[in-house]
Design a protein that fits this description.
By secondary structure, this protein is of the alpha/beta class. It folds into 2 domains: about 130 residues, Response regulator (Rossmann fold, 3-Layer(aba) Sandwich), CATH 3.40.50; about 60 residues, Winged helix-like DNA-binding domain superfamily/Winged helix DNA-binding domain (Arc Repressor Mutant, subunit A). It is built from 10 helices and 8 strands. The protein has a 6-stranded parallel β-sheet, with helices on both faces. A two-stranded antiparallel sheet has the order 4-5. The longest helix has 15 residues. It is elongated and about 55 Å long.
């Protein structure tokens, strides 16, 4: 039986090495470590992969945009997000971008193994600490009950420091749509600038 080929992309070598050790312990799995979106792009031009494990917070790319770019080239590739973020908004964005799994870095060590097994079998996997989101998608919006799910996504991205143009690319919508959402968010949250949006996001624990 052919080995399961797993690509692990994280720009922190110690974190990457730890997760690779867990994956390498599984019989029949072959793991390649990469440290950047650029390295991933180079690998995908000629290398083979069955499962991609991807950190959202890479230094050289927006993880959500990268998911869409990878899936545009390899539509059937299962992608697992491996992230320090456990907010339902991050989970919602990752799944909307096309990820099949989401595992937080605080999860138990067996969960990354379970996630790879699940997505390789074409099944969605969420780590236990965020599984409530799957049972109740509205839970992802608890930090911002005033907002629609779409507005909450825009708020999250703006709070992370993204420009309107970058938000539009990430969400695959027009800048005009983002501006309209931002105006509504300002009104509903009682703020008047992106700086205030970020401060509120920090206060509510969104970022």
């Amino acid at each position: 039986m052919r080995a399961l080929r797993i690509i692990l992309v994280d720009d922190h070598p110690i974190v990457r090495a730890g997760f690779r050790q867990l994956l390498d312990m599984q019989s029949g799995w072959g793991v390649v470590e990469l440290g950047s979106a650029a390295e991933l792009a180079a690998y995908l031009r000629g290398g083979e992969v069955d499962v991609l494990v991807l950190d959202l917070s890479l230094a050289d790319a927006d993880g959500l945009v990268l998911i869409r770019q990878v899936l545009a080239a390899k539509p059937t590739l299962p992608i697992i997000v491996l992230s320090m973020h456990d907010s339902g908004l991050y989970v919602q964005d990752a799944l909307a971008a096309g990820a099949m799994g989401y595992v937080t870095k605080r999860s138990g060590p067996d969960e990354i193994v379970d996630a790879v097994n699940a997505v390789a079998a074409d099944q969605q996997y969420l780590s236990q600490d965020i599984r409530a989101y799957a049972q109740n998608p509205a839970a992802g919006n608890l930090h911002a009950p005033e907002l629609t799910a779409r507005e909450a996504q825009v708020w999250l991205l703006l709070a992370r420091g993204h420009t309107v143009a970058r938000v539009a690319r990430t969400m695959d919508v027009s800048p005009k749509t983002v501006y309209a959402h931002r105006s509504s968010i300002y009104t509903k949250l009682g703020v008047s600038s992106d700086h205030e949006l970020r401060q509120l996001a920090l206060k509510r624990g969104v970022i």
